TrEMBL record:
Keywords: DNA-binding, Transcription, Transcription regulation. Residues 106-248 form the SIS domain. This is MurR/RpiR family transcriptional regulator. PROSITE patterns: HTH_RPIR, SIS. Gene3D superfamilies: Glucose-6-phosphate isomerase like protein, domain 1, Winged helix-like DNA-binding domain superfamily/Winged helix DNA-binding domain. InterPro entries: Homeodomain-like_sf, HTH_RpiR, RpiR-like, RpiR-like_SIS, SIS_dom, SIS_dom_sf, WH-like_DNA-bd_sf. It comes from the Bacteria. Residues 1-75 form the HTH rpiR-type domain. The lineage of its organism: Bacteria, Bacillati, Bacillota, Clostridia, Lachnospirales.
Amino acid sequence: MTLFSRQVMEQFGELDYEVYNYILKNSEKIPYMTIREVAKEAHVSTTTITRFCRKTMCSGFSEFKVRFKLEKEKKGSVKKRFDLSSITDFFERVNSDAFQKQLDTIAGVIAGKRQIIFIGTGNSGIMAEYASRYFCNIGIFSTGINNPMFPINLEFPEESIIIVLSVEGETNIIIENSSILKESSSTLVSITNSRNSTLARISDYNISYYIQKERKEMEEMKVDITSQIPAVYIVEALARLTMEKKQG
């Protein structure tokens, strides 16, 4: 049982909540304070604090401080771990018949094309190169481009499929080049986080994975650290399904 479980807090009176609120506001220094120091700053008696500690199943303030510090450290370490909830939700969604049918349909389109090109920038650019390598590894030749300014030679536009990876789906240069490629009669597929993005809307086919977007402050700029795990799954699933259709 945690120090401040629901069962414990149901026993708290008005003075107990005074102590409780003081402890939460001063959590960093509580482990290093004496019971008299807490009583003085919280404007309660030492007896009130002792009763408070016993309600949290501690013998006294000394035991409370030790347990409070341990729980705080434990919660801190949990917060630093990778949050798997959105990834777990994604894998639950991909097991649906609708999602698998969508993958199967797009794999069928890919299998009928002579030229496969993956495009992306930043982390998605790395994914574009990975996707191309993965397709090649299972015997399906493809090209990966992580520089949207790189000139693309489409010898057979109508027999080419462009697969664009983008978390936001709002990068201007990606949208502009994707529009040009689509106008050349190539088939455009996008893999994005949301179906409501501009890139998704202009694509012939879109696969959206909907996970929590994450950004981190780095030297006065925000860096996208959204997980690429869904994109990896989608790329590998498409590759395997395409291989099956080419062989069958």
